[in-house]
Design a protein that fits this description.
253 residues, alpha/beta, Rossmann fold, seven-stranded parallel beta sheet, 7 strands, 41% helix, 17% strand, binds NADP nicotinamide-adenine-dinucleotide phosphate
C-alpha cells in the first residue's frame, strides 16, 4: 500500500464498528495498519465474529462494548481510549439507530432515542476525546441521503442526519486550526441488517440498485474505502466536505 494510505501507527475509534458499514471500516482500517477500537452495544455474536476475523488476520483490533447514549458508556470509551499509549488519530461515527414509522405514529420518545445516538453521542464523544486527538487526526460522520431528501418512514432519522452534517461542518471549521479534519460520508443504500426494520426493504433495495448508474447497490467495503481515504494523508486538504458513495444514484437524470 502506498505510504500515503498507510494508517500504520495510528489509532481509530469506530462507533457501531462491529456490524454492517462499521465492521467493514474497522477491518479496512486495521488492514491498513491502524490500531482499531470497534464499539458496539448489544450484538455480542457480531462483535465476537469481528474479533475472530481480526485475530485470524493478526490485526490490531479491540472491542469496546459501550452504549453511547448513556454517561456510563461514554465514560467506558473515554477510559479505553486514554489507556492507549499511541495517541488518537480519528473517529468514524457509524453508530445510528432509528424508528421507521409514518410521522403521525412517531412520539417524542422515538425522537429523543434517535437524536441521542445519531447526533448527541457524536457531539459528546468529540468533546470528551478532543484533548486526546493528535494533529492530523480525522473525524468522519456517516450520514445518509435522508439528511436532504425525503425518504418514506424516515423523518426522524433524516432530521438527525441533517443535524449531524451541520454539526460536522461547524466542527470542521473550528477544529481545522488544531489540525483535526472533519468530513462526512453519505452512503447510498447498503444491504445491511439496518434494512430489516424498514418497510418494503427488499423492493426498495431492488429499485435503488436498478436506478443507480453503477447498476447495483454499493457495498459496505466501498463505503469503508471512502472512510479510509478521508482518514489518510491523501485527504489532508479535504475539510468539511460530504463524500457521496452511492454509485451515482443521487444524480438527477
Ligand atoms: N445501510 C444503509 O443502507 C445506509 C445508508 C446510508 C447511511 N447509512 C448509515 O451508515 C451507518 C451504519 O449503518 P449500518 O447499516 O451499517 O448499521 P447497522 O448494521 O444497523 O449497525 C449499527 C451499529 O450501531 C451500533 N449501535 C446501535 N446502538 C448503539 C448504541 N446505543 N451505542 C453504541 N453503538 C450502537 C450497533 O451495535 P450492536 O451491533 O451491538 O447493535 C451496530 O454496530 C449509520 O450511520 C447509517 O445511518 C446506512
Amino acid at each position: 500500500m502506498s505510504q500515503m494510505f498507510s494508517l500504520e501507527g495510528k489509532t481509530f475509534l469506530i462507533t457501531g464498528g462491529t456490524r454492517g458499514i462499521g465492521r467493514a471500516v474497522s477491518l479496512r482500517f486495521a488492514r491498513a495498519g491502524a490500531t482499531v477500537v470497534s464499539n458496539y452495544v448489544r450484538d455480542q455474536k457480531a462483535a465476537d465474529s469481528l474479533l475472530a476475523q481480526a485475530e485470524e488476520e493478526r490485526l490490531r483490533l479491540m472491542l469496546c462494548r459501550a452504549d453511547l447514549t448513556i454517561e456510563k458508556g461514554l465514560e467506558t470509551i473515554e477510559q479505553q481510549m486514554s489507556d492507549l499509549l499511541e495517541g488518537f488519530h480519528g473517529l468514524v461515527h457509524c453508530a445510528a439507530t432509528g424508528v421507521h414509522k409514518p410521522f403521525d405514529e412517531l412520539t417524542l420518545r422515538h425522537y429523543d432515542w434517535t437524536f441521542a445516538l445519531n447526533v448527541r453521542s457524536f457531539f459528546d464523544l468529540v468533546k470528551r476525546l478532543l484533548p486526546r486527538f493528535s494533529p492530523g487526526a480525522s473525524i468522519v460522520a456517516v450520514s445518509s441521503q435522508g439528511s436532504s431528501r425525503v425518504v418514506p418512514a424516515y423523518s426522524i432519522v433524516g432530521a438527525t442526519k441533517g443535524a449531524l452534517e451541520s454539526l460536522a461542518r461547524h466542527m470542521a471549521v473550528e477544529l481545522a486550526p488544531r489540525g483535526i479534519r472533519v468530513n462526512i460520508i453519505t452512503p447510498g443504500a447498503v444491504a445491511t441488517e439496518a434494512w430489516a426494520s424498514m418497510p418494503d426493504a427488499e423492493a426498495r433495495l431492488a429499485d435503488m440498485a436498478k436506478r443507480a448508474p453503477l447498476g447495483r447497490l454499493v457495498t459496505a467495503e466501498e463505503v469503508a474505502q471512502a472512510a479510509h481515504f478521508l482518514c489518510s494523508d491523501a485527504a489532508q486538504s479535504i475539510i468539511g466536505q460530504t463524500l457521496t458513495v452511492d454509485g451515482g444514484a443521487c444524480l438527477p437524470v
